[in-house]
Amino acid sequence: MLYDIANKLTNKRPEVRLAEGHVFKINNTKTGVIMMDHKIKEAEKLETLEEKLNAYDEVIGLMLTAEAREFIASQDYGLEMYEVIFKTITAAIQNKSLEEVEAEEAKAEFRP
Fold first, then answer.
1. Alpha-carbon torsion 24, 30, 35, 39, what sign?
2. Containing domain of residue 46, as a range?
3. C-alpha to C-alpha distances, 82 to 6, 13, 69, 78, 86, nearest whole angstrom
4. Confidence of residue 10 (pLDDT cuts 50, 70, 90)
5. Burial of 24 by CB count in 10 Å (0-12 exposed, 13-18 middle, 19+ buried)?
6. Is 93 inside any structural domain?
7. Which of 22, 53, 92, 94 is the most buried (most CB within 10 A)?
8. Residue 66: how many CB atoms within 10 A of its CB?
9. Domains held by the chain: number
């Protein structure tokens, strides 16, 4: 028996719009997600807030394009906006809506 899944397989990447005219692809590849998981686990072991924030910044850098990273840096966002970006990446790699991820987070009472 042949299982034809060719029409189900795609390399299309989820995208995030950070501002009008600024849409970027999210790296949801297996390798990207493994690297993200590794960085998050490393960040949890760090002691200072600065080290943890830099590690989460690195995670965002791994999952978005260089152009997206430059755009984010140029906006001088506050910490809360970085959390929204991080949650959006998390939602995208899980193929969930941002609202679903936020609801799950609220249930677990987890904040990065």
1. positive
2. 24-108
3. 37, 21, 11, 7, 6
4. confident
5. buried
6. yes
7. 92
8. 9
9. 1
Query: Which two tokens mark 8?
Result: 């189900």
pLDDT for 75 beyond 90? yes
Distant-in-sequence, close-in-space partners of 61: CB < 8 Å, separation ≥ 6 = 69
What amino acid is encoded at 1 in this protein? M
Q: Hunting for tokens 């002691």 — which residue is that?
A: 47
Residue 36 neighbours by CB distance under 10 Å: 21
In a domain, 63, yes or no: yes
Residues constituting the chain:
112
In a domain, 11, yes or no: no
- Of 20-34, 49-63, 87-101, least confident by mean pLDDT is 49-63
pTM comes to: 0.82
**One-letter amino acid identity for 44?**
E
Tokens of 80: 């809360």
In this structure, which amino acid lies at residue 16?
A: V
Please say whether the beta carbons of 28 and 14 come within 8 A. yes
In a domain, 55, yes or no: yes
